[in-house]
Write a structure and sequence with these properties.
Layout: H1 4-10, E1 13-18, H2 20-24, H3 43-46, H4 49-54, H5 56-72, H6 77-87, E2 91-96, H7 102-106, E3 111-113, E4 116-123, E5 130-132, E6 150-154, H8 164-172, E7 176-180, E8 202-205, H9 209-212, E9 218-220, H10 224-238
Parallel strand pairs: 1-2, 1-7, 2-3, 7-8, 8-9
Antiparallel strand pairs: 4-5, 4-6
Helix pairs in contact: 6-10
Length: about 250
């Protein structure tokens, strides 16, 4: 009898790349929006290594606010639909640009966070040293086990994306790539599409899909909370990954 691992890898592989749009539907503000937390905090002042060196207290205070926002948010229909597909036996891998834990709270088990996780702290000198933040935030004077100040476990603008090579490997194994709620403008995440197999279809679910999608990408111009559950219903009913033409109108 084949092992569980072998059986899993025999199943078609759905790889999902999610961006800020899916979390925005749960009330988490995107940095491109004109209101909310980011409106009063220019990126250069709170989300760069230079900002951290210049004013760590301001950076910590800003991420405490974002952390509170994440804790208040709840998974929406798109998060739940992806988790349900996995529970129904589909092989699902999620690569997210988001730093919240909404995919995990919805029930997804295979989630790779490209840009880090806001509900964790990490050492300022050793990025391998991470600490969960089940409650509260980070204060000046909170140190890692090596005596270094703790910082948010997020990838700031100007920093390398350490999980990018792993993300490329996952995308290369996709039988279908589903892109949800991202402008495909943030690098290097946007270049992940270049790593898909030549015969793996790609679907973009976004209200602006007609404008954002590259040539060859199927467009589904809907909010994540509408488009993803609709696709999931078709896949569940048919027991396979396919692109239903009836949705693409």
């Amino acid at each position: 009898m084949a092992s569980k691992s072998t059986r899993e890898h025999d199943r078609p592989h759905l790889v999902v790349l999610t961006g800020a749009g899916i979390s925005a539907e749960s009330g988490i503000q995107t940095f491109r929006a004109g209101d909310g937390l980011w409106a009063d905090h220019p990126i250069a002042e709170v989300a760069t290594p230079e900002a951290w060196r210049r004013d760590p207290q301001r950076v910590l205070r800003f991420y405490d606010q974002r952390r509170d926002q994440v804790r208040r948010a709840r998974p929406n229909a798109a998060h739940k639909a992806l988790a349900a597909l996995e529970q129904q036996g589909f092989r699902v891998s999620i690569i997210t640009q988001n730093i919240d834990d909404l995919h995990e709270r919805a029930g997804s088990r295979h989630v790779l966070h490209l840009h880090g996780e806001i509900l964790k702290a990490r050492s300022s000198i050793d990025p391998r040293m991470r600490y969960p933040l089940p409650r509260g935030g980070i204060a000046l004077g909170d140190l890692c086990d090596k005596g270094s100040q703790l910082r948010p476990d997020v990838v700031w603008f100007g920093e390398a994306v350490p999980h990018f090579p792993e993300a490329c490997e996952i995308v290369a194994e996709a039988d279908l790539l589903l892109v949800v709620g991202t402008s495909l403008a943030v690098m290097p995440a946007a270049s992940l599409l270049d790593h898909t197999s030549f015969d793996a279809p790609c679907v973009l679910v976004d209200p602006e899909a007609e404008v954002l999608a590259a040539p060859g990408v199927t467009r589904l111009s809907r909010l994540a909370g509408e488009g993803v559950p609709a696709l999931a219903r078709h896949w569940t009913r048919e027991g396979r990954l396919w692109i239903p033409e009836t949705l693409l109108v």
